[in-house]
Automatic annotation (TrEMBL):
The keyword Transcription regulation applies. Transmembrane segments: none annotated. GO terms for molecular function: DNA binding. Keywords: DNA-binding, Transcription, Transcription regulation. It comes from Halioglobus maricola. The lineage of its organism: Bacteria, Pseudomonadati, Pseudomonadota, Gammaproteobacteria, Cellvibrionales. Residues 138-203 form the HTH luxR-type domain. This is Response regulator transcription factor.
Amino acid sequence: MEHLFVTAGGSIRERWRQAFPCAKLATRIGDIGAATSRARGIVWLDLSATAPADRAAQVADAVAFGWPVVVMSAAPGESEAFQFLNLGAVGYCHFGAAPEQLREIALVVEHGGFWMPPELMQRFLALSLRVVPPAAPSEPVLNELTSRELMVAEQVAHGASNREIAQTLNITERTVKAHLSAIFEKLSVRDRVQLALAMNNIPTYSTVN
């Protein structure tokens, strides 16, 4: 899968290159087609230097290309995150995110999920639970999980990040990720948002807009 960074800065930042050594560059959304060489990929749209009034239009134009779009912001915020997700973006993060986090985002997106910073994820889940009161999880479904996987799933349902889960359960973040992969497969969910909603018996769909 190709990684194409669209940035008015004219160059790929070092952190982006560390995450994806073969990343491609476009300085304008209109150049995306000419800059790509593969049929599938992710568009990383850097809006850190874009005027607020122009951001929504740029996201919409990037989404129209047909590849999953991850928006990169200089100051990620809740309202902007939801606005861009409603426009069709599947990811939202800080433009200075660490290479490891960028790779984690890419993995989620490649598997059809969507990603936003943990603190925004927690607010999203809190809002969802206020709108649709939680009911008891389905026992037959949860019986598929091991006791430790269930502990991890319950932490996700409360909006905890991987680091917070690792600290609470006294395990490594790598182990948390391994448990999450197993949980996603067993419960047929794509990402931690769908998992959290499923754990609270909120109907989930192919994507969350």
